[in-house]
Amino acid sequence: MNAPKTPKTFHVKSFGCQMNVYDGERMAELLGAQGMVAAGAEDAELVVLNTCHIRERATEKVYSEIGRLKHRDAAPAPMIAVAGCVAQAEGAEIARRAKIDVVVGPQAYHNLPELVSQAAAGSLALDTDMPAIAKFGSLPARRKVGASAFLTVQEGCDKFCTYCVVPYTRGAEVSRPFQAIVDEAKALVDAGACEITLLGQNVNAWDDEAGHGLHGLIRTLDRIDGLKRIRYTTSHPNDMSQGLIDAHGDVESLMPYLHLPVQAGNDRILKAMNRSHSRDSYLRLLDRVRAVRPDIALSGDFIVGFPGETDAEFEDTLSLIDEVRYAAAFSFKYSPRPGTPAADMDGAVPAAVMDERLQRLQAAVLRHQAAFNQATVGKTCQILIERSGRQPGQMLGKSPWLQSVHLVTDARIGDLIEVRIEAGLPNSLAGIETVGLAA
Ligand code: SAH
Ligand code: SF4
Ligand code: F3S
């Protein structure tokens, strides 16, 4: 067998959640700092598959990606590194089945350059250690970023919802130090970011010894010159402190958007999921958030077909959706994950029933999303320009409520401009810049 030679070009492909996108960017920066050059997936000499383990489909994708890379047309097979949550959960198994070169877990990717050298010397390089947030101190400085950037502040999860692999793939809840986050936020702004989304599997569990809490961190970041917008995701209902709710009332750069997954609307199912909140406690929490920020856009995650979910229990999820009137939502068919308690539960819901429930749920969400979008028509709001659109002169930006807005403007990426919303479509809005328009 030919030992793979040291790669000079690389490509990082990320799947899964926003934290994986962030990790992918950091791995690219790390490889770039070694003198390697970014290239396409068709011809890069090293391809990093930054994988997701959350549902069965996500895992299957890894094997098909590996197969495709091994038989790509444009160039010989690359050195393949499997990173991310699949690497953590079953990296050794993949290495046995698919002959890859590097396996690196989400808490160990600061060692990627060393692992690549090891693989270049001809042996499988595997690192799935989980030191608590050691990696951040060993990563290079942030380089150029877009108008909207991600910043991981918290990782891991102690909640152990019975269906979920994240506590196993990402480890226990750990918060990055306050100053490291503030420094990285400043570096991101210097590198071109106007908006920062703070990331964590349970981002609102972030804290430090001084007891700043996420709201204290947000209030500090709010004072960074040039940082126009702050967002955070994903939150757990039980970690939504009054301090954080209050911040939504008076921190101007904190956007009126809250992604607060509930998963289901029935208390028996919530209990079986080990969510440790009830339908009612969730709804009361939203009342408190809406009291300080009436226009807040709410989004959620839902799982249909959890083991044993009856038709009536599913109806409770639909009625919750109607009660909350979500501006957006992500919904999934339950997928049994090896090693999780729910995988051993009885009462598997037939695939056809899951399909039907998912369709009904998504139709309900779409109805509320369209109504939410329609309600912004005629309003004037600030739009952060994020990229150019397909048509000449067209730019795309985001409303405070995270809606995509397209408009014709001379404004440039990173500009925050006043826009009147003219039309609401199910997935986006059309606007007109109000500068020069009669009010
Ligand atoms: N920490 C976040 C996100 C976790 S993963 C949170 O708690 O909200 C994102 C979403 O994937 C979850 O909210 C859940 O809706 C979905 N999910 C997780 N495990 C799943 C599984 N086994 N089957 C189907 N959906 C799942
Ligand atoms: Fe998974 Fe639950 Fe933790 Fe979210 S809170 S990451 S769904 S275990
Ligand atoms: Fe997937 Fe891991 Fe994120 S399992 S959703 S990539 S934390």
From TrEMBL:
Binding site for [4Fe-4S] cluster 2: 157, 161, 164
Cofactor note: Binds 2 [4Fe-4S] clusters. One cluster is coordinated with 3 cysteines and an exchangeable S-adenosyl-L-methionine.
Location of the MTTase N-terminal domain: 8-121
Database matches in SMART domains: Elp3 (SM00729)
Endpoints of the signal sequence: none
Binding partners and assembly: Monomer.
Stated name of the protein: tRNA-2-methylthio-N(6)-dimethylallyladenosine synthase
